[in-house]
Amino acid sequence: MIAHKKRLALLSVLVLAVFTWVACSPAGSNPEAAPATAVEQPIELIDGLGRTVVLEAPAQRVVSLAPSNTEILYAFGAGKQVVGRDDFSDYPTQAQDLPTIGGSFGDYNLEAIVDLDPDLVLASELNTPEQVKALEDLGLKVYLLSNPEQLEGMYQNLITVAQLTGHDQEAAELVDALKARVAAVDERLAGVSERPLVFYEIDSTDPNAPYTAGAGTFINRLIERAEGENLGLVMDVPYGQISLEELVVQDPDIILLGDSVWGGVTVEDVQQRSGWQDLSAVKEERVYPFDDNLVSRPGPRLVDGLEALADLLHPQAGE
Amino acid sequence: MHITQRPYLLNLSLLALAVVLSIAVGAVFVPPTTLVHMFLGRLPGLAGLGSWPGTFETIIFRIRLPHTALVLLSGAALAGSGAAYQGLFRNPLADPYLIGVASGAGLGAVVAMSVKWPESLLGFYTVPAAAFAGALITVVLVYMLSRSAGSAPTTMLILAGVAASSFATALSSFLLLRSQGELRRALAWLLGGSTVNGWEPVLAALPYVLLGLGVLLVSGHALNVLQFGDEQAQQLGLPVERTRTLLVVAASLATAAAVSFSGVIGFIGLIVPHLMRLVWGVDYRRLVPLSILGGASALLLADLLARMVIAPQELPVGVITALAGAPFFLWVLRRAQKTGS
């Protein structure tokens, strides 16, 4: 009996050892032997996974794996160099004409990507390291653009992607313009004394415990930058559910419906929800639909989001 | 009993057809003649037949071929283990996940992702390796639990398996709810499984599937004897205890390897053995090999559908096996009833 158990345990250890050995065996040959005769200065950048990515020349056939990446590429005129996009890349509208390479189950169609013969695949933090490796194993160049922490990081991402695609000049101009718009918002809100308490609704599938955004998110940063206070900060996680009770206790001045675009939630829906009628924001009709894409995609439209927030939170400021 | 060649030939042809379709059909259209030329070109002395873009080489030989191989192995492992379990437990509801392989693998994968395991340790194999370990540890635990209880071992094995499965699933759910960024990777694994592509996962899974299925293939006679019940089998000279251990270990090995790389695919391990039993009879010497062949074909065809239904997106193959498998199975059951009466 005991000998039996021992044998079984021994067998499983053995099996695991073999598995580990197989798993660790070298991962095939590395096909990258860069030719020594590069005419142009090669582009060498470190990506979000700490990998050094080298391009011999600016990429001319880019596949974007994230909506934010697509928006960044189009923002400074690299749209013509984009040959493929993920399912969620819907902005700008020209991007919708591009062939899609999947992504809706977090799964990308490798065949479709390879078929587009890209010289650069622009990944984001939506993509797992495994996916990056799978693409690399197929001989593709992959650059993973990390999520920015602040607007400054978003500008840096614009510059990085511009370097990869040969649009340094246009990107520098774009960044200057974006900075000027942010400065204009800051200036307009400089005299604001009251900071409204804002509840940003991400998902209200369960209206008794809607999802919202807390610290560490752009939603939070932009609400604060627009001189508002984010109710979501009461949570200790970036994204999570908040109870209706907490909402009633906090009683926000403004409710923003980030689920209005993707979820079709309307102001009327909110008025119908039981228990929500007593909230000040609902009674005073300060519930507004909000385009979540402006604050959830870390691209240049974050500045549009900031302006939209400033208009909603402080309509009278600076007039 | 006279064993004819026909069922094998039929199932082998079906498998060959499924393999060809799986290689020929995909998100990117490769003309059949080009495809033939590409394969012929690999043979010595036949290079230079026609020309095709270099991307086709990558798509066929580095994406579709290894993918087909992995699906084939998974289907074979699941259906082969399913047949063995149904015989071992003498329970028509037994499937390869009965005693906790799937939930154990799921827990292993989720743990590996939520503790942010040092990636360098096993690199990209961390998740499949953890899933494999989770599956085997769960099965060993279940086995020991059932043994310590004493009498009626098969019933105890099933009960311990159900309990351990629920526990592991609950623990996975808890970890998933607590996790933040890693949730997406965990979900991707649970839905689709293979987070790694190419030939490496095929080579990593191959030894376990071969070893496991090999043992099951030579256990046909023992499974037949086990149908008389444990006591009868013992009296007929079969070392019941040892046979059971061997079968559980073999089936778990094959299933764990499949699950680690392909995710939890339902229904194949349950339905295919029943189908084969309905058509070709209950002799396990024939049922196990036929289930292995049939499982490989069935999963290849389901995978083909999963890739085609909403191309270029891919559905998780488990959705297809359940959606298409269940009605098909009911239809076969009805037909069997009619012809039987």
Structure description:
The complex is a heterodimer of chains A (319) and B (341). Chain A has 319 residues and is of the alpha/beta class. Chain A contains 13 helices and twelve strands. In chain A, the strands form four sheets. A four-stranded parallel beta sheet of chain A has the order 4-3-5-6, sandwiched between helices. Chain A has a four-stranded parallel beta sheet with strand order 9-7-11-12. In chain A, strand 1 (43-46) and strand 2 (52-55) form a beta hairpin. In chain A, helix 5 (151-165) packs antiparallel against helix 6 (168-188). Chain B contains 15 helices and no strands. Chain B has helices at residues 6-24, 32-41, 54-89, 101-114, 119-122, 126-148, 153-178, 183-192, 199-217, 220-226, 230-235, 240-262, 268-280, 284-308, 317-340. The interface between A and B is large, with 48 and 53 residues.
